[in-house]
């Protein structure tokens, strides 16, 4: 028997509870895993609270991330005892996920635990940190190097944002961190922000083109804030956009694109191909300093997950939230 957080529907209402399940309840897949750690991402928050239509098949075990060891495998790439990490692929959305002591998954969804990281550290990174790495790689691919100027990170005290600030600093960029929570300025500075930009400075309808302030940006917020950021990006700069914490619309104009050669680079972590995944994890394990793990993570139990799921949808979580199974 094992413990699992289960989302179910009763009388058309979503209920979330911890259930004791038998291994036979797990979906039939290639690799059965003893989960050591999972984490809470914004998408988990939307799924568990029911605020977003993330889950359509019930009952469902949420949790888009997990790290653990293989119990049994029908696939030649994995043997019992192997340490693995999973993010994305719709796990925790339409396939039972990581907020349970056991999971059963397709081999192709897994990556071997990156060298140099513990499973716990991998979950302190999780989907959010992995996405931050993909955003940095996207900026690099457009030629936005540290010598080009300052990089803006929006939603900086969140999971993606806090890792993005840390990674950029480690790579030698100057980082301006946008936050709506001034009380997080000290943490963001410790992680590597050279400057704090109050969120209010980027709210409200702005001009199609504004003063050029940043060589690039990593945006987790979307909506009007992203539109305002685009209007302030330098000639030949780029914005890596991965999130919608402020809304999924984008009320912009073509002006930054056609007059300043600005690129809007979309970043998705869920379906990221295996080789890129492995490369991103390897870079994360090399780049994140010990101080990141000490400063920017909170560990919780399965019993606390619903509370933190609510908090993350309200923008009240700072850094990454790790779940010990
Ligand atoms: P968090 O909740 O940890 O971080 C989001 C941050 O955005 C908050 O901490 C807050 O930072 C800021 N924020 C919250 N609400 C608003 C608002 N209304 N307006 C402006 N800023 C706001 O979430 P994650 O870091 O886990 O995820 C961030 C976003 O990225 C989400 O939209 C998520 O869905 C998306 N995402 C996308 C992925 C992909 O593959 N494309 C993968 C992972 C995440 P502060 O208080 O500092 O301002």
TrEMBL record:
Residue intervals of the Enoyl reductase (ER) domain: 13-323
InterPro entries: Acrylyl-CoA_reductase_AcuI (IPR014188), ADH-like_C (IPR013149), ADH-like_N (IPR013154), ER (IPR020843), GroES-like_sf (IPR011032), NAD(P)-bd_dom_sf (IPR036291), Zn-ADH-like_protein (IPR051397)
Molecular function GO labels: acryloyl-CoA reductase (NADPH) activity
Positions of transmembrane segments: none
UniProt protein name: Oxidoreductase
Organism, scientific name: Corallincola holothuriorum
């Amino acid at each position: 028997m094992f413990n699992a957080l289960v989302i179910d529907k009763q009388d058309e209402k979503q209920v979330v509870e911890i259930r004791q399940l038998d291994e036979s309840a797990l979906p039939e897949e290639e690799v059965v895993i003893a989960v050591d750690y999972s984490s809470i991402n914004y998408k988990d928050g939307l799924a568990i609270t029911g605020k977003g239509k993330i889950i359509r098949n019930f009952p469902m075990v949420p949790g888009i991330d997990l790290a653990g060891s293989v119990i049994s495998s029908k696939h030649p790439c994995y043997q019992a005892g192997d340490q693995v990490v999973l993010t994305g692929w719709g796990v925790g959305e339409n396939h039972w996920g990581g907020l349970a002591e056991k999971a059963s998954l397709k081999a192709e969804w897994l990556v071997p635990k990156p060298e140099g990281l513990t499973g716990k550290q991998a979950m302190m990174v999780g989907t959010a940190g992995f996405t931050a790495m993909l955003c940095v790689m996207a900026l690099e691919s457009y030629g936005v190097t540290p010598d080009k100027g300052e990089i803006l990170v929006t939603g900086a005290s969140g999971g993606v944002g806090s890792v993005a600030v840390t990674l950029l600093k480690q790579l030698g960029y100057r980082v301006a961190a946008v936050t709506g929570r001034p009380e997080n300025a000290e943490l963001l500075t410790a992680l590597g922000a050279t400057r704090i930009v109050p969120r209010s400075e980027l709210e409200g309808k702005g001009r199609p083109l504004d003063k050029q302030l940043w060589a690039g940006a990593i945006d987790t917020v979307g909506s009007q804030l992203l539109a305002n950021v685009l209007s302030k990006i330098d000639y030949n700069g780029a914005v890596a956009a991965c999130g919608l914490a402020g809304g999924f619309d984008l009320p912009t104009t073509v002006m930054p694109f056609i007059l300043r050669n600005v690129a809007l680079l979309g970043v998705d972590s869920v379906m990221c191909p295996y080789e890129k995944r492995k490369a991103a994890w390897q870079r994360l394990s090399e780049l994140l300093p010990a101080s990141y793990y000490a400063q920017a993570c909170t560990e919780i139990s399965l019993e606390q997950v619903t509370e933190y799921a609510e908090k993350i949808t309200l923008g009240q979580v700072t850094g990454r939230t790790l779940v010990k199974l």
